[in-house]
Amino acid sequence: MTEFNALDDSTAWQKEFEQRLRASYTAAGLGEAAVEHMLENACDGIGDWTVVELADEGTRIGHLAVVVADDRGTRAGRIGDLRVAAAHAGRGHEQAARDWAQRWCAERGARQVNVRLTEPAGELYDGYTVRGQARVRSVTSSPAPLGGLTARPMTRAEYPEWFAAERDAYISDIVRSGALSPEEAVRKSDRDFAKTLPEGLATPDNAFLVLEVAGERVGTGWLKHGHLPGVTYGYSLHVEERHRGKGYGRAAMAAGERVTFEAGDSALMFSVWGGNEVAMNLYTSAGYHVLEEHRSLDLPDAAAWRGATLGEQGHASPTERLSA
C-alpha cells in the first residue's frame, strides 16, 4: 500500500527536482542560460507547494508535490511533481499517488488539475487532455533550402492581411484545444498581440517572413529572436491550404532554422495547442523534442469523492494525513 507523509523540510526534494528539470531541458537542446530561464519559470511559486514523501511499508519510494491556486477566477490544482524510484515503478504506486493528488486538489475546491510533463509518463496521464506542447530543436548550422522554398521579409502592405489571419488562427487554436471559451480566447488574443507586437511590423527582434517557391507565395512565418537566451521562438510558420501536401511544412521549418541561425540563436522553439495532431507529427518527424507538455483533467466536486476511489482502496484521505 502506498503511504503519504508530508515533508516539513523539502529542501532535498527541491534540489533533486531541479536537477531532473535541468537535465531534461538540456537534453531537449537548450543552452545553459535558456535552461536556467526555463527552470526559474517551472519553479515559480514552489514554496507554496505541498511536498509529500511516498513510502511502501516504511521504505521511501518517491515524492509527490501538489498545489491549489486561483486560475482565471476558479480554483485549479496542479501536480508539480510525481516521481517513483525505478526500483519501485510499475507496482501501482504512480496511479495511487496521482489519484491521491486529484482528491487532495478536489477537497480544496479545485475543479481542474493540471500537470506539466518534461519526461514521458507512460499511461499515467492518458485520461488527461493535452492542452499544448513546447517543442524545440537545436540549430547548429544553416540548413539548405528544401523543396525550392525561400523566405523573404514581409512588406508593410502585406502585414495587415497577415495580422488578421494570424489572430483568427490563434483564436481557433485556443478554442480547439479546449483551454478557453471562444469569448475568452478572443480576449486572450487581443492581450497577447498587444503585448507581443506593440509596434506592429516594426517591433524589434521579430522576423516576419513570406515563404515562396519559384516566386509564388506559399505561406508566411513569424519568429521572435532572443525569446530565451540563444533561442528563437516560432510564433507561426504557415503554409497556405492550397499548397499543403507538397512537403512545404518541413521546408518552412528549415527556412525558420536558417533565419534562426543567421540571427545568432542556437535553438528554435515552437508551441502547439492540443488537438493539432498534424503539427505535432510534423515536429516529431523534423526532430523537434517535447520540451514541456501541458495536460489537464476536470474534477468533480469534493462530495463526489466521499467513500470512493482512494478511500475504498484503503488509502487514507488526504485530509486525514495532511493539513492544508
Automatic annotation (TrEMBL):
PROSITE patterns: GNAT. SUPFAM superfamilies: Acyl-CoA N-acyltransferases (Nat). Residues 149-311 form the N-acetyltransferase domain. It holds the Pfam family Acetyltransf_1. This is GNAT family N-acetyltransferase.
